[in-house]
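Why run this: before we spend reagent on co-expression, it is cheaper to look at a predicted model of the complex and decide which construct boundaries make sense. The entries below are exactly what would go into the expression plan.
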Amino acid sequence: MSTAIHTSSRVTFETSPEQYHHWKLSCDGPVATLSMDVQEDAGLSPDYKLKLNSYDLGVDIELADAVQRLRFEHPEVRTVVVTSLKERIFCAGANIFMLRGSSHAWKVNFCKFTNETRLAIEDASENSGIKFLAALNGICAGGGYELALACDEIILVDDGNSAVSLPETPLLAVLPGTGGLTRVVDKRKVRRDLADFFGTVAEGIRGKRAVEWRLVDAVYPTSQFKEQVAKRAQELTAQSDRPSGAKGITLGPLNPEVTDDALRYSVVSVDIDRDRRVATLTVRGPEGDLPSTPEAIQAVGDQFWPLRAFRELDDALLRLRANESLIGTVAVKTEGDAAKVLEADEVLLAHKDDWLVREITHFIKRTLKRMDLTSRSFFALIEPGSCFAGTLFELALACDRQYMLDDPDQPNTIALSAMNGRHGAEKDTAGGPLPMSNGLTRLQTRFLGEPDRVDEVLGAAEAFDAQQAGDAGLVSFAPDELDWDDEVRLAIESRAAFSPDALTGMEANLRFAGPETMETKIFGRLTAWQNWIFQRPNAVGEKGALTAYGSQSRPEFDFNRV
Amino acid sequence: MSTAIHTSSRVTFETSPEQYHHWKLSCDGPVATLSMDVQEDAGLSPDYKLKLNSYDLGVDIELADAVQRLRFEHPEVRTVVVTSLKERIFCAGANIFMLRGSSHAWKVNFCKFTNETRLAIEDASENSGIKFLAALNGICAGGGYELALACDEIILVDDGNSAVSLPETPLLAVLPGTGGLTRVVDKRKVRRDLADFFGTVAEGIRGKRAVEWRLVDAVYPTSQFKEQVAKRAQELTAQSDRPSGAKGITLGPLNPEVTDDALRYSVVSVDIDRDRRVATLTVRGPEGDLPSTPEAIQAVGDQFWPLRAFRELDDALLRLRANESLIGTVAVKTEGDAAKVLEADEVLLAHKDDWLVREITHFIKRTLKRMDLTSRSFFALIEPGSCFAGTLFELALACDRQYMLDDPDQPNTIALSAMNGRHGAEKDTAGGPLPMSNGLTRLQTRFLGEPDRVDEVLGAAEAFDAQQAGDAGLVSFAPDELDWDDEVRLAIESRAAFSPDALTGMEANLRFAGPETMETKIFGRLTAWQNWIFQRPNAVGEKGALTAYGSQSRPEFDFNRV
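The model came back. Tokens follow.
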């Protein structure tokens, strides 16, 4: 079987409810219902059929889109019921034939995106007042249960048959790698011995035992199931702080111009140099008048610069990941007026309690997290004409290194805003508007060894020139105009010559200093082990369990423990 | 080249200073010096030469032994200077030709043991009042620098040439996987952009820059180096709470009887059933009179039951890991008088401030951590005649599951002691005498979802019979005498049929619920990524960098980013 189902085609990540193949989104006042109804023949590749509500990346792209639109387009929604339209089947998990036919890189990228989508559900719950209720109307296996685990509560039908299960280990010799193992013991706090048993019984656990073991929150017989789900959905709306009477904005298509070596959006562009295996990602700062009130922001909607810029950036990162695996290094640049970026930051900060501004800020945060988790080397190049200020300086901080040109003849500065730190009154507490997945801001993570520096640099009244930025520890290197070209060229060239795998591993370890959270645990511990297993012959070899699944042959294992 | 250098020979982990090939241990009052002087031709295999103070597992076994003996045999030592007897060379790191010729499993096990040894150094510093001062008298590369990172302080000679470096990524396409990446950003809190640069320059960083970047604590010119090291070593002794005038005990050889299918120590035995790929590990409780004062414990020395039992257990675990990779499941049993185990616990708790009792308790803790980190499935079988009480019940808690026979005709109980929990006065604080590497006790980790249970079960006046233990959540399953044989047999048989890789990944994720620490990060995030890379063709393939190292050919990489 081919191991390169997807790698030659280009994936796009934009969709909208009218285009969904696999989900139905319906809103009824404060309760929305998101129903899975996967079309067997509408997978991203014709090589497999998406039976039993199993999913591929295309299904998950729609789910991610739905969650995003619920946040921006439906401020009235307070509870989302996640369920299925298929009789006695909730979801059978990731499609095994898709996984079997995919390259290692595709598997890894697929899991990363699905992990990010599940974390987006949890982010909406934690930060946007949208509670998710998984209504499991039938079998719920593997990735299906991992989706349920991302919801706030899980109700399972008690029909003597429907169970929740994580059959990956016994059936496929892989892990429930989309957060499943982590969420079972860390989020739902299932006892580890029971979790161990659960993770090895392919048929799963059902009924009262599932409740007693904390695997689900409640079970109801078929006759009461719908009614109890509806009741609980209503109850959950009471926990929400979403506004009454607000009107959503529409997230329109991004319409990038895509050529063989460039992606051009309205303010973001990506230029690809295939010979050097380098992309240049440029973000243009805002121009013209910025809206300064919630009403004015609402009026411009998805054209408001912070939202537009980060939606484009998010899409660009996803396309780079999926479609440009040979591009190992990304030079990150900005262009524009730093003062305007800081003005946009002030608007976001002044109206942080407005529902839409809150959504925009959390979306910026999630996009920056996506960058932290992208397995490419990012180098910020800070040159005259750039606008690495406030929120856009977070882009530089998300990079593995920052190079800043020190040329007295060409003014070149960076600046911070409260978007880089904590809100005024909340000094000395962790976090800020744009925390990383470790719960700290990028400045806090950067200055873990010199925590006083965080307040020092945030308190600076002026912008930093290259020397000041170097002294303050805000940039890695500040070469002068004589050295700049060579130093930057050499840094990028030598990076491109290293093993991409070693760089991925190195970056995954250096980027997340400080505390670990459930989120970093999923991407650190669980994902790294899953990636290991995705290469093991016992899973993916000729006689491995993933390869053998669904065929006549039984898997044959090398039983040596590593 | 063979990829099975070591796998056919049996490794032993016992040694003593008289037998060292690679280290010299000398004690001068409160300052000991541990000098690396690796003998090229004394590697574990004749297939490579240990040039430039590079190391293999045999070198690290001696290091682990030295650290252990400093704790038990030299209570007068308060500072250990870790240095080298080779001119202008501290240590070149793990031997690359050894790594290149080793199987995947050997690499993984080698890294696990070296990680545990470095953590044992940090444990001695944190808990036993022994400070470690790395005196880098010359080049210090890769694993050499990772050893230095495990020390409390690092002094580097400033001779215009000597540098610290992590050349794994640029030269070998692997990671500094013995804690290097984690300790650089999490322990020494080096800024991540500087750490990124450092991790890609094979020649490393030297002199003042190494101090400014926090990579070392001080540099001194050759003329002052020895004197400054001696001065700082003396200063560090002031931080110690080790006793004056105490006399150490001698750790004698364990002398197990080793046959093809058994390991028999004085109170620990391992019986191997190769057909079923199962080992039975049995620990016998104490018999006869136990010493009850520090003086009496000192007098019996290494024959004191808790020390003897856990030294034997530690050695058994290490041998299982290295020599019995086909044994995937371990049935854990105990035999003896629970009251005597609890009596031993009382002695340990009553004299917890005695230096030797402190060492014994920390050693028990480290052995249990070794078990947590052993990639085998452990099932505790709690049967009549067993003595799963207090410290020995930690063995059961360290298992993936606990099966307890419920037979009214045969009394069978388990019991807790303060060794399972927090010391009396310190209730409601995390930890206890035997924390896991996540900083919590095994009971706290087990009851993450029901934290009140911890105090409930610790407060119980009586032992628990099978039903009570099941109700209290202390065992997974309590089958009656009719079901016992079938249920246990089926559990073990089905376990043995699963992919060992999937089980390893599953266990590594389920065993460490709750907070992450630097220690769990090293074994979770860093190790899992390293294990992934240790399978990547860019490292270990025919044209991979590890394979090509030292040969005429240059590595050829697949530059696709995963």
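The longest strand of chain A covers residues 278-284. Residues 77 and 448 of chain A are 39 Å apart (CA to CA). Bring this page to Monday's planning discussion.
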